[in-house]
Amino acid sequence: MWQLYQFPLCPFSRKVRLLMSEKGIAYDLIRENPWEQRDEFQNLNPALRTPVIHNPERQITIVDSRAICEYFEETVDKAPMINGTATNRAEIRRLIALFDENFFADVTHPLLEERMKKRLVYRQSPDSRILREAMRMANLHLDYIDYLIDHRPWLAGATMSLADLAAAAQISVADYLGGIDWSQHEQARGWYSVFKSRPSFRPLLSERMDVIHPPTHYADVNA
Amino acid sequence: MWQLYQFPLCPFSRKVRLLMSEKGIAYDLIRENPWEQRDEFQNLNPALRTPVIHNPERQITIVDSRAICEYFEETVDKAPMINGTATNRAEIRRLIALFDENFFADVTHPLLEERMKKRLVYRQSPDSRILREAMRMANLHLDYIDYLIDHRPWLAGATMSLADLAAAAQISVADYLGGIDWSQHEQARGWYSVFKSRPSFRPLLSERMDVIHPPTHYADVNA
Ligand SMILES: N[C@@H](CCC(=O)N[C@@H](CS)C(=O)NCC(=O)O)C(=O)O
Ligand SMILES: N[C@@H](CCC(=O)N[C@@H](CS)C(=O)NCC(=O)O)C(=O)O
Hints:
By secondary structure, chain A is an alpha+beta fold. In chain A, 55% of the residues lie in helices and 8% in strands. Chains A and B meet through strand 4, helix 3 and helix 4 of A and strand 4, helix 3 and helix 4 of B.
């Protein structure tokens, strides 16, 4: 059985969980706070980051959410998520990088620092200037999703792909942390509400991160 | 013909150039300073980052170095660089992420900010504290390369892979900017010197970035 090392608000772990669920791959969750830098975790991943996926029976360890997703895409035929021509696949990977890197750096990472780490680790209050800037950037990223959904049924084209899972994973964490203002984003909101009701997404939305509470609309499929 | 939008010290563009050369794919270089945020460049890549690869005849644009490398790996058989079993491929991709993300964030990015952008764009002098920290981190990353090369002929295993190209690309930029102290790193130095004499690497080493000069050992294959 696969073991996924993660914490509930790690967006990269959420992407992996969505992919594994869509593909019907069973896994156990192992709670890991990477900032605690446990020795056993460092043995699995010297870079000390989540997610890591480990299969003790088969002695396989895979590090990095993109490496993990490509691995399951190559080894499990069900529900292909990096699909189509080489050009389609390149467009899927462009958008994965956009959400994993730009959205994360502009929005998810500052929200996690200010609203999660400062609360749980540093015992400080959040910096409201940084929070405002993260929300402003979230708004620009949602504008781009609106634009894509105006032109295509799913973010990367005609079918659902890992780009949608990557985007939904980042957005769900930002939404949990109160960073998303959905008004003015009809298209993005419509696309995201389809995800919220998927069986792969329900377990994520029902989890809570320690003492941090999401806004009431967060897990509401009709919001 | 492919057009590669890049500037000489962009490590991700260097990785793409190494891959294209190894695979024998012809390309033209287009000089792009992403921080100038040209409108034409934003039309190619809304995220305003290099590298971008564009083929006007075939109307293909690919953004993000990992998406570009996976695309050439899928479409050009020569010199496979993400090869082997699914587990081998995952190990290659883990190391690509380590160099593209951790080495870049810890070493290449601060060196580029302090020694290139402050000089060319902000007209400021570099912060020596940040430079020292980047060099300390470079040392730790080289320790890890020493460890890998003690156990394997190439970074990800028995054959040269995109992990080697990704690492060499980052290190070459850090070395250009005076961030690498090669003493104490026999294994990493031996591995890197093999690269320096490869035909794919020679054109990179002979290029210069505007008024910024590399140390004398930089392009010397015997150093
Ligand atoms: N590119 C990596 C990013 C992983 C990453 O940044 N994970 C964060 C958690 S969201 C982490 O472990 N950070 C280290 C820390 O918080 O100490 C991936 O896709 O897996
Ligand atoms: N993950 C991207 C990273 C690209 C990246 O960060 N490029 C830098 C140059 S090295 C950039 O364009 N930064 C924007 C700027 O300098 O304004 C890739 O692999 O292509």
